[in-house]
Backbone:
């Protein structure tokens, strides 16, 4: 009975420690964030002729709104 438990534990440990694809998911998350940031910037710059500081302030506010 003890041997069976050890064998099952070893198989489950191998399955649960599988980290294949974790780095890919991190890169996909970073890419999604950059796409969102570019979309926010392009939406804010559309039709804007104000000062650069106003645009940067709006970008920061928009990012803060997206996070909340």
Residues:
């Amino acid at each position: 009975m003890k041997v069976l438990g050890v064998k099952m534990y070893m198989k489950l440990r191998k399955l649960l420690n599988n980290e294949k694809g974790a780095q890919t998911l991190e890169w996909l998350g970073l890419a999604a964030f950059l796409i969102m940031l570019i979309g926010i910037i392009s939406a804010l710059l559309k039709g804007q002729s104000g000062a650069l500081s106003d645009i940067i302030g709006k970008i920061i506010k928009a990012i803060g709104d997206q996070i909340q």
User: Anything to note?
Assistant: The mean pLDDT is 78.
